[in-house]
Every structure is written in structure tokens, then in C-alpha cells.
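Final report, results section. Input specification for complex C-07:
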Amino acid sequence: MSKIGTDEIQRMAKLARIGLSADEAAQMSVQLGQILEFVEQLNSVDVTNTAPTDQVTGLVDVWREDEIRPSMDRSRLLAGAPAQQDGYIVVKRVLNG
Amino acid sequence: MVDLKTPIQELVAGVKTGQLTAVELVEAGLAKIKETSDYHTILEINSSALDDARSVDARVKAGEDLPLAGIPFIAKDNFLTRGTHTTAASRILEPFEAPYEGQVIKLLRAAGAILLAKSNLDAFAHGSSTENSDFGPSKNPSDPTRVPGGSSGGSAASVALGQACFATGTDTGSSVRLPASFCGVVGMMPSYGLVSRNGVIAMGSSFDTIGAMTNSVGDMALVMDTMAGPDPADATTVNRRPTYLLPKAAPSMKGLKFGLIKEYLAEGTDPDVRRIVMDAVEELKKAGASVEEVSIPLVGLALAAYYILVPAEVSSNLARYDGVRYGHSSPAATNLEETYRLSREEGFGAEAKRRIIIGTYVLSSGYYDAYYKRAQKVRTRLIDEFKSVFSKYDLLLGPVAPTPAFKIGDRAKDPVQMYLSDVCTVAVNLVGSCGISVPAGLAQGLPVGLQIIGPQQGEDQLLRAAAAAEALLGDKVAI
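Structure output:
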């Protein structure tokens, strides 16, 4: 059975920028193990000379004219931001002082 | 009060001839929503629905020819709509009001349809029961102790309850067809790319399809005809057929060649579901169709491939919810890194977190080839198997799910058990085909749908076959 320890779960959480409590990580370690065990069955298929599928439409290079168009109203786009100032979105400091 | 389960074309004719008004139809929908609020199908009512109805009545009076004149509809709450919130049933989007409206909503409004409300779903469409909604589950209209299916469970239940004439849904692995089967309505997912994803909250971008739930196949044809078509804002959209409307003469089963997918009736299928599907097969044969058992060996692996590929796409799509530009932002954060980490920890529910972690894992260095790339290759093999089957058969048949609606709480604790609800549906999304659930019978009072699957861009044939099946099976589903 595939085992993923809580330290590995927390490493993934760090990569995904998401906080997980110790309880959540412990529960996920068990559930992820079950899920990875479930998907093991894919190893039964020989895919040696098979190309991977990224998309199903077969469309290639869909272009449009490079033309100037009106953009969406700025204040409308900013309206959902938790904090804004002078038409910019305000974020918390990047480095701790 | 007008019955919103009346065929849409009759209601539209009533509005056009002045026997009915859009306002009356909207009032009927709002009254029904109020009367059946215990089913928790709705997250928010569109407060301008009556104003919108008045303006449609004015457009009709001015002589505009509107194919959906005055028809009230409900949008799954992962469709961006102006004038309401759009939450995807997740806390992280609880305060979110979309700055623009999705293409499908624009097309429906332009055709004279009226947005009545936003419906409940599994948060971010992750689930098969609506139990993953951060705002509580919806209930099955046939038995309120059971789930309506998911993720578009609020939409399916709302149509079954007569709260609106139709509802929009999204189907990434089962999310339109499964709740349609559980609630006894018609639910269709078109082929990937037929309906624009612009303005619909992304889940698995190479799988997401935009579908609908209706009370009849005729209604579905009308709704699809309005929604389908290329959109410059979604570069994956494909060309449409001139029409998806059904011909005036009742469609016939004669000459149609169906393949019944053997693997979908394997061990573990509920005996009532099996009986209902096999009875439907007999009816189709009696009406002149040919039905043969067909094996698609890799469909048994579709779910495993799906639960690698979709979480991978989910983890990437959900990266945008960062507490910076919109949605929940943690007040406890003291720097930018904490804004990301805490906003996401507080805002996402258990299933979204689970999928983000799985997706990050299968995409991470060292596991990418073993999981993600292998699953993409299995997807290719599955596409080849479907192509080969569709060279022999016009359409495929099977159940939508191995069971009828299950009890609320029964599968909520075990993710793999919940994922197995989708075992008969995910392959269609992996290969980009189209599918529909048509009510086919009752299992101890619970609705069960027959799944019909068509080849890519085979919607016109799929709809005609579904209409013929509906006519044959109609008396088996009367409650």
C-alpha cells in the first residue's frame, strides 16, 4: 500500500500555499494512501508507445486578431479586493521587518 | 399558479400570444421556491428577477422574437451572474460578486430567459451528493433523507420540484447526469467545447462541460440550441450544428444501433438499476433499435485516471483563490505568505483541500511521470477504445450510476466510496463525448436514469434518440 506520511502531506501543503492542521494532515495521510492505492490499477496498462492526451477537441493554435478593445471597468474589477488604495490592490508586506 | 413543468414551448407560445406573462412565470417560480425551501436547493434568489421579467414582457410586446420568452431558470452557483453573489458553494467565495457575466447566462438572457436564483452544489463542483457544499446539502425531492446527487444537485432538485423550467449545470465527471438520474429529470452534458466555459468557475479545464437539467428532452433541445456555439473568449469551443431542435415528427428508434456497455452492469450494480436498464433495452429493441452488448475494457480504469488528472487540474485552477484580489482574505495574516496560506486554510472545505493536495502530489517532481503522465496516456487509450466502438454503434447505453440516490451521510466519510458514484460516467468526460440521463424507471420509489452516450459532436442524434427513449419509457417513471 502506498504510504504518504504527514510530513509529505505538509510539504505538499506548503507547495500549494495552504495551511493544514495536524488533524487534517493526519486524516489526509490515510485518505491519500487509499486514493493512491485505488489508482495503482493504472499500472496494469501497457502505455509504452502511447502519447499523452492534454485535450480532446483536436483544435490547434486558435488565433484572434490583435486589436484594441475596451477593457472592463477598473473600479468594477477592484470592487472585490479586500483592500485597495489609489486604484491598486493592497497586499500585506512580503518580508517581515 | 402556472405549472413550470409545462413544456417550455407551450409556455413561450403563451407569453408570445399574451395569454401568459413573464412576470406570472417568475412569480410562480418564486412561490414554488418559497413553498419547497426545505429542500435547500437555492443559495440566493435573484432580487431583480421580477424587473427582468417586466423587461422581457416589454421586449415581447415590442415584437422581439424570443425563443425562451419569459422562461425562468436557475443557474448553478458556479456560473458568474451579475446582480447576485457567485460562491461555488465555498466559503472562500462567500463575499464574491462577479464583475462580469458568463457567456451562457448572456445567451439565455438574450433569448428571453430569466435568471430566478442560484442553486446549491458541492463546493467547486467537487462531489456527487451536494454534501460537500459549505452551506449544507440539498435534499432529494423523492425522499428528503437522501441526497439529490451532485455536484449540480441543487439544479436537478429544483427542476424536479418545479421551481424553474430548467437549470444550468456543469459536468466534469458526472455532475449533470448523476443528479438528473437521482432526481428523475433529464440531464445532458454536451461534448467538450460545444458550450462556452467563459464565466463558469473552472474545475478540471480539460474536462469541464456546460450542461442543463430539464423536465423533458424537447425542453433540453431548446435549451441546448440556445447555449451551444463558439465563443472567442473560450478558445476550446467548437463549431455547432445549425440546429439542435427536435424535428416536428416524433423521433423513431428504427435502425439505430446501440452498444450496451457490459462493464457498467458488472457486479456491484444495484439489482433494481440493472432491471430498469434491461427493461429499457427491451423497449428500445421492441421499437426497432438494435442493441448489442459491447465491451470497453478500459472503462474500468477511467475512474482511476480521472482521480489523478482532475485533482491535478483542480490544484492548478484553485491556485487563483489567494485572498488578494477577491473572496475571503484572512484577517489574521501579517504578511503576504500568510495571506495565501491562512485565507486558503480558512476558506476551502475538506474536499477542495484534499483535491489540492492530491493534485499537487501527482504533479510534483518525482511523481509526475508515474501518476500524471501515465494517466494522460491511459486517457489516450480510452479515447481509442471509444473511437473503435463508435465505428460500430451509433450510440452507447448504460446506467448513470450503480445505485439510486443514497442516504445523506452514508458516503460522506469515505472519499473513495463517494468517488465510486461516478464509475459509469467519468469515461465520457475523459474522451470528450456527450451524454444524457433520461428517466427510465423507479427503484422502490427512487428515480433511476438511463444513460445514452453519443460520439463527439453527436448531440443531434443523441437528442433524437433520447426523445424516442423518453416516449417509450414515460409510463415507467410516473410517480
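DSSP finds 15 helices and eleven strands in chain B. Residues 88 and 401 of chain B are 24 Å apart (CA to CA). This concludes the modelling results for the funded period.
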